[in-house]
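FIELD: query
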Amino acid sequence: MSKRLFLLAAACLLSASLPAQQPAPQPPALQQPPRCDRACLQKWVDSYLVAMRDQNKDPALFASDVRFTENGVRLPFGKEGLWWGMSGIGSYKFYIPDTETQQIAFLGTVRENGKTQTDGDVVAIALRLKIRDQHITEIEQIVSRPSNTTSSRNDFPPTGQGMEAMVAPHAIFTTPIPENERASRAQLIETANYYFTGLQNNDGKGYYPFTDDCVRFENAVDVLARGGTRTTCKKQFEEGLKGVVDRVRDRRFVAVDRERGIVFAFGFFDHYRINWTWQLAELFKIEKGQIRRIEAIFHRAPFGTPSGWSTYEQSISSEVQDVR
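FIELD: result
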């Protein structure tokens, strides 16, 4: 054997005797934070209410750049608005979790200006929280205090007191929609928006997709049972609410619970002739493309008030905003 062939054979034998070279270790895949389910999102609301009551800006709970508005005004977080005077958590609690967008809306009651957690003023609150990277990044709330001018009528009780008298959300709201009957997110928002479109410049001839047993509550008052007689949602739109609202703007749909067929929206009702704006939070229970139950809280705001989350063009528009 030639010297060259001998060396080649030796190299092959040596290579075969060595352990196989292992591939270089790869960096671990980036771990995505777990998505919140319904119960998880609900806990975020509970934690937020406790933090606000205790004036605790816990960095484990809130993002460093958390954005906060109350009644359409952006405020320094943790210093002003309800954060200043909240003293207790009320008894009425209505959660609307949106697992798709990792947001949750809430209607409920709290106490303000009390010396203990059970006294003071009963205040109604409508709330939206945005959760990202296991922190609260956005907080939007409407607070309806007894001192607010909540109605042009004096037979409406203070909103917070009325909500606590309701005790809990109606069973219709908590009943799941059969899985094979659940509408898409877009379909639910479209149906809810028919309510706003039907109310704006209403001539009594619009499209009003209400069930025959639809019930509508405003500031904890059943507004279909007024004046000693009971009407229906559809008849009220056809007869009693003609020409009442000039513009329904800044329509921000912020939570959709497909499992229960609930849509939650913030918006504004403008009345030109009396220079009056209602700022509102309104939710709709929708079954088979029709609105079965409505619950809203609202209060009077300076005419033309924006939400604090929209551009100027969006704030005066009647277009739908699907907030994600």
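FIELD: remark
Confidence is low (pLDDT under 50) at residues 12-20.
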